[in-house]
Amino acid sequence: MTNDQYSIIIILVGVFIFFLWGRWRYDVVAFSALMVSVLSGVITPDNAFNGFSHPAVITVAAVLVISSGLAVAGVIDRIAHIVVPPLKSLFLQISVMASFSAILSALMNNVAALALLMPATIDSAKKAKRSPALLLMPLSFGSILGGLITLIGTPPNIVIAHYRETVAGEPFSMFDFSPVGVVVAFVGVIFLGLVGWRFLPKDRQAKTATDELYDIDDYVAECVVAEGSAAIGQKVKDIDDIADSCDVRIAGLIRGGKRILRLSRTRVIKEKDILIMKAGPKELDSFAHKLGLEIKGGDYDKSLFSNDDVSLQEAVVSADSRVIGRKIGEIRLKSRSALNLLGVSRQGQNINHELHKLIFKAGDVLLLQGDSDSMSKSMDRLGLLPLAGRGFNMGKRRHAGIAILLLAGAIGAAATGLTSLTISLAIAALGMVLFAIIPLRDLYNTIDWPVIILVGSMIPIGGALETTGTTDLIAAGILNLSEGYSAFVVLSVLFVVTMTLSDLMNNVATAVMMAPIAVSMANSLGANPDSFLMAVAVSSSCAFLTPIGHKNNALIMGPGGYRFGDYWRMGLPLEIIITIVALPMIALVWPL
To answer: Do residues 356 and 246 lie in contact, with contact meaning Cβ atoms separated by under 8 Å?
Structure first.
């Protein structure tokens, strides 16, 4: 082995370890690996940033913009509650819901599809008096399966398609993935509806996790600002630190008999004001003692926290939220976003105490109180997804037809050879802006920049695998272990290895790393490289064993009240079924 080969292998092992560790976000890990590759001489400085101009990066960005346009235009919201009804039969409810999720994911990014369908699914579970855990994991798995059907369904397909262009001169087309993807998705959805949900633990099947945040059993009281109180003359923001240290939330204020829930943090507190507080008895007593308040008492009533101007909203922390790894004080939730955090649910466990010490994680469900008009924008800025219907962007609904036509036109132009798919999708994304479906000021917020950084950073690293001869080295090692076996057996080994890696690290990174290895293996066997690339495309997207392999799995963790170990219970038999179904289909459609 050469020094460059040692270096790139060490870098890739480091990437794998840091992805698995999860302390650093995957885009930071990928970009760090790129910089280390440059400093070690594995990648030349001139080629370091070639990945960011790669067609795969542009395609991913365009798909994200188009997906956001479809959501804003109300294309999905119009039919989601109809297609995800509270059916009496659990099999029918899961099958219909997972099928629609799969179909939707074939036409747009599967993370966006899940985010759009999750509120309707939770509402359906409540109406049917079922635990959301029974529906959300099949919903997530269905959206992942649907991404297998088309090129734009999931970023790994885009990566594999464009890598094929570098080795064969022509990328995979929009529907080249469909013959295998449709069969795998169909069988997977049937499994989820028939038996998949039965593998969940019994307590998860019975628990209605998302209702519990509203069942606040903390003491809620009205505290009078008495004569001589230290709070008199202070602004609300001035006593926020004291409230946080006592684990108390100030939810509103009553002045002159008028209840004020749209509470500005700069409002000055006056004598005889009544503060609406949420806290435990001991915490409330400590806070009242420090500021000289008189506790009137009171019972929990949802109306105490909401009216026409102020609302309560449950939201889930997305995998790329800017609040992850930070405490509430660090993100200045009250002062910057005018949001009041009333409670948190993590993996089905309610957290209502010491919220100022809590470090947010992906999948946390937050109970927020805030201004009804600005809450949606504040949540978007922070990367929080609502678990109930939003009711904003209603003015864009008239553009639903235009949004559909833009997507259909892009697909049609690529299918007929009028232009490449990358160009047609880029034009469709531009159309979303020109037709004012997506305001120009919001355009860049629709792009998942961590994914863009990840893809742009990993493409040169994948190229370094080839230029250093490391792909041939790894391929030879796998082939030596499989010596004497047929190409189909070797393909099966590649499929299982890739699927396992995808469960432990990001699926895009897995596709970038395994694609050149797959081609090298195929060339060594004298087999069809397309078969091996298609195997990588399918297996790298099938991450069902852990919540870290795919964003969708992390997204449902909090709302479904799932634990880390719940995923493999349903995911392992699903991955076995996919392996049994996908490999013969790949060999049939793309003969070895």
So the answer is: no
